[in-house]
Amino acid sequence: MTITIKKCTLDDLRILQDISYETFDETFKDQNTPENMNAYLDKAFNVNQLEQELSNSSSQFFFVYVNNEVAGYLKVNVNEAQSEGMGNESLEIERIYVRNKFQKHGLGKLLFNKAMDIAMEHNKKKIWLGVWEKNENAIAFYKKMGFVQNGAHFFYMGDEEQMDFIMIKALL
User: Fold this and answer.
1) Stated pTM of the model
2) What's the number of domains the chain is made of?
3) Which domain CATH number covers 24?
4) CA 126, 79, 164, 18: dihedral to nearest 10 degrees?
5) Is the terminal CB of the chain with fewer CB neighbours within 10 Å at N or C?
């Protein structure tokens, strides 16, 4: 199995959109109504939204490939691109999305390590993320990676208010 990581560009927009829809739907469709899922997907992953995110110099996307097939991606934010005001000493992992058929192969950890490398390159003091309170697998993964819950924020999935746990890992 050959695994590579490649930075995304605007040329990758359609693939990024497809992977975003697929992975988000796979992960969350069983806990949400189809209407709320569709409303969220249409808002978060429409072409204009993803193009803005890809064009933001304070955000970076990376695809992970397994045998030349896109298996998932990482999105990190610094400075004003962070979804919460965590300051310039922080790096946010906004997304680690891995397609179901590629899960349990260490790709999440590989993408996490990529985020850690970026944080260290930018001399960040902490790395943080928001994770849905009901995403037990992700919460367990982040705890294993050394994150601790430090708060929460609310967001809307369609018309339903939901909660993300804010988890932080201090960097040495």
Assistant:
1) 0.94
2) 1
3) 3.40.630.30
4) -110
5) C
Closest CA to 23 of 11, 9, 37: 37
The token pair at 72 is 């998932």
Long-range CB contacts (within 8 A, 24+) of 98-106: 98/23, 98/64, 98/71, 98/72, 99/19, 99/22, 99/23, 99/26, 99/70, 99/71, 99/72, 100/23, 100/26, 102/66, 102/71, 102/72, 105/1, 105/66
Per-residue pLDDT of 122-160, as tens digits, reads 999 999 999 999 999 899 999 999 999 999 999 888 889
pLDDT digits 0-9 by tens, 102-111 = 999 999 999 9
Domain that residue 70 falls in: 3-170
Q: How many Å apart are CA 82 and CA 74, to the nearest integer?
A: 14
Of all helices (H) and strands (E), which one includes residue 139? helix 136-144
Q: Decide: 62 and 110 in contact? Cβ < 8 Å.
A: no
Residue 142 falls in the annotated catalytic set? yes
Q: Which of 21, 73, 142, 156 is catalytic?
A: 142
